[in-house]
Amino acid sequence: MASPLKSLAVAVDRFDTQGLATTTETPTALTIAALGPAEAQALTPLLAALSWPWGIVDSAGEIADLAALTADYAPFIVTVEKPIINGALPVVTLCGLRAFLLEERSDPVWHVANLTTPFATMATDFRPWGTMEIFSPAAPTKSPRELVRENNIPPHAPADVRIWMLRGPASKEQWAEAVFQAFADLSAQALMRALAGEIKADGSLHFKGPPLTQLSRPRNGAAKELNLQGYNDLRDAAAWVYENGVEAERRHGLFTAELGATHPRVAIAPLAFRRTASNVLQGARLAYQLSLSDLTREAIKAQGDLRKAVADDTAKLADNTRQIATSVAAALATCVGLIVTLPRWLNPV
């Protein structure tokens, strides 16, 4: 049997999806507005079982009589006070989850009411409500806003890629959950933007190639269009590009160039990434390894040139030293000869 909290979360999400309510969630409160009498009556026993502070008002803003939740007093507004969880962000609804994600909140741990299978990104741990685990965010890396060209205000590229990037591939169990699907949909859009070479004003993604490749603006439903394997390929690509902040700029350039050169036959961003992300990543990795080999050869050549220059300078120094020693010896011999002959000059016979 579902807990009162999970039952409440499911009910509110259903009303929100069906357009039967308007949900607003903050870190401390949950507000469910535009409720009809049937929806209000359905929520009251769930709220009573939850034992959180809550209240309901009618269309006139007056405290509603729970025994008289009729159309005459509709619509109703329910306000719920959420408990404080030390060191964690409490999330009740999918609407709240999406809003918090779009804010790119920095809370390291999120307790999600309707989540069964936990998952973690490089910056955030998403856990079922009430479970406690130790979590350490990954070190900061290069921001996509430093690598992706755009003139949009506000920028479309994410400020921090870590919150969108899973620590490992998504599993089938995670993929089957509504909470994870809500995360994956926004995550997919953010990661595609983070891997673009340029984002235009209309949100389209450009990759320099050559040839220049343009993909459509990432949109809601991107995760479903990618499917599980495509999403994991996208995640792997983002992880490779951004795992090393020092090398992120070079890797990003190689990936965008490789995707442009691959020139996917479809312009819809999720479909293009689903078909090409794995091959593009392999090509970018190969180009990266070759660039490292070139750097190694250049380093070896430079080291050899340096050794030759040092050897030449050492030989010249030794030759100069020998010449100086010879000159000094000749000068000493001359001086000794002069000293020996000097008494004869002073006392001639």
Write the layout of secondary structure elements.
Elements: H1 4-17, E1 22-25, E2 29-35, H2 37-50, E3 54-57, E4 76-81, E5 89-91, H3 94-102, E6 109-112, E7 119-120, E8 125-128, H4 172-175, H5 178-194, E9 198-199, E10 205-207, E11 213-215, H6 222-242, H7 248-262, H8 269-346
Parallel strand pairs: 5-6, 6-8
Antiparallel strand pairs: 1-2, 2-4, 3-4, 7-8, 9-10, 10-11
Task: Provide a compact summary of the structure.
Helix content is 49%, strand content 12%. It has 349 residues and is an alpha+beta fold.
Plain-language structure description:
With about 350 residues, the chain is α+β, with helices and mostly antiparallel strands. It has eight helices and eleven strands. It has helices spanning about 5-15, 35-50, 95-100, 170-175, 180-195, 220-240, 250-260, 270-345; strands spanning about 20-25, 30-35, 55, 75-80, 90, 110, 120, 125-130, 200, 205, 215. Strand 7 and strand 8 (about 125-130) form a beta hairpin. Helix 1 (about 5-15) runs antiparallel to helix 2, helix 3 (about 95-100) packs parallel to helix 5 (about 180-195) and helix 6 (about 220-240) packs across helix 7. The longest helix is centred in the C-terminal third of the chain and has 78 residues, at about 270-345. The chain starts with a helix and ends with a helix.
